[in-house]
Amino acid sequence: MEHRKKDKSEYVIQAVDRALSILESFDYQQEELGVTELAQKLGLHKNNVFRLLATLECRGFIDQDKKTGNYRLGIKTFEVATVFLHHFGLRRQARPVLEELVAKCNETAYLAVADGPHVIYVLMHETSHTVRIFPRLGHRLPAYCTASGKIQLAYESHERLAQIFKHHPLRKLTENTITNMEALEGHLRGVARQGYAIDNEELEYGVCCVAAPVRDYSHRVVAAVGLSGPVSRFSLERVEQELVPLVKEAGVKISQRLGCEVEVAAAPAAA
Question: Fewest Cβ atoms nearer than 10 Å: which of 96, 118, 190, 221?
């Protein structure tokens, strides 16, 4: 008697399936969700959703905002995604461009992705300088006062920005930090027009960064490519004449590797 080969759907474990459905409920439009919202969205009882969330939170796949009580994806989801990205995806496409960027200017280059009011650094290539400034991979930093964050916020709508920062006030970290939402939006409009962002000691004294957008095949901004270093090496003249063109060129090159049809404007040759 032949054994019928079972369809894989017959082996699905309901609790695991529901937990994965919770993770899939979070997207660019809904980065935070409450128990009631998830229960309604998935057609589950709130008690079941709460137990699943508690399990996911214990494993680091879900975080709870202590102020709002809502839930968002946890750092463990990034760690798992990083394994995939290592083999195929954004990091794989960006790596040779970052290496080329560092070869041209000898400053630390990085790739960062947006995570609501934060940015997460997913790839880095270091300078050979003894004095170097670089973010830790997987580290979250506030988007409103970092070059990589501002360049990604610059293409969001007024409504989306209000949603992102609804429960995240703009804290003053240095004398250069923008702490007013209206002022930030005005600044971001300028960033969008020029196609790059600068962090001039807005997050931390002594540190300067410049970043440009990375777009996917649909022209959506999916990341930022940037350079960071001490202000002693990032003079205004050097930033504007050398580093900005190099970063914008790198952003276009990565975008092209992701299928975005956009022309590269060659950066000027180093003197």
Answer: 190
C-alpha separations of 107 from 38, 142, 149, 195 in Å: 44, 22, 19, 20
Closest alpha carbon to 124 in 138, 109, 114, 113: 109
CATH topology of domain 8-73: Arc Repressor Mutant, subunit A (1.10.10)
Q: Distance (Å, rounded) from C-alpha 211 to C-alpha 187?
A: 15
CATH 3.30.450.40 fits 77-257, yes or no: yes
Given a cut of 70, is residue 268 above it in pLDDT?
no
Look at the chain and count its residues.
Answer: 271
- The pLDDT tens digits of the residues spanning 155-197 come to 999 999 999 998 899 999 999 999 999 999 999 999 999 999 9
Instruction: Tell me the C-alpha to C-alpha distance, in Å, between residue 1 and each of 4, 6, 7, 20.
Output: 9, 15, 19, 37
What's the mean per-residue pLDDT of the chain? Answer: 88
Specify whether the backbone of 48 is left (phi greater than 0), alpha (psi in -120 to 50) or beta: alpha
Cα 180 → chain centroid: 22
Domain ranges of the chain: 8-73, 77-257
**Amino acid at position 85, single letter:** L
